[in-house]
Amino acid sequence: MSFRTQRRHSTALLSLFVTIVAGCLIGCAPYQLGNAALFPQNIRTVHVPIIRNATFREDLGVRLTEALTKEIELRTPYKVTADPLADTVLRCEVIDETKRVLTENDADYVRALDAAIQVRASWSDRQGRLLMKNSIVPTDDLTILFSQDERFVPEAGQSIDMATQKALEDLANRIVSQMEARW
Prior knowledge:
By secondary structure, the protein is α/β, with parallel strands linked by helices. The protein has 2 domains: 1-31; 35-177, 2-Layer Sandwich (Double Stranded RNA Binding Domain). It has helices at 3-27, 60-75, 160-177; strands spanning 45-47, 52-53, 79-81, 88-104, 110-125, 144-152. Strand 4 (88-104) and strand 5 (110-125) form a beta hairpin. It is flat.
């Protein structure tokens, strides 16, 4: 193969490569990489008011508000803001908190328990349109019910507070997952 033919082949390969790269860049322009593609693109800010708490454990609302704020900032392209005029508002309410004995030993000492928390949540835009909908079981209710339980074993040094914190973090994760755009 002569130098001229070799040069023609390399020029043809280079132009083919440039064409393919340009086609990919232009053809893939509306696509996004990373987790930002999972969430609606017309939203920039989310207001998360302090979560109301209907239980006797006074700190659950504040703790869930913190967990939700961290989860939204970590996993979504949205900015959590204190401004009630944000693009959207995520309202939640802790409606129940229970502790249930799972196992006891022969002397009736508790060995394992479940800590359960139930939360009602709704996410809406400025016009009041719901952005988070229960597509599995449609109801007339404007909220979605989330429930999370965590097992803990006092004999192993685990406490109700540790189990509750884990349940709150898991609830925040599940609520933020429901903020993803539907396919």
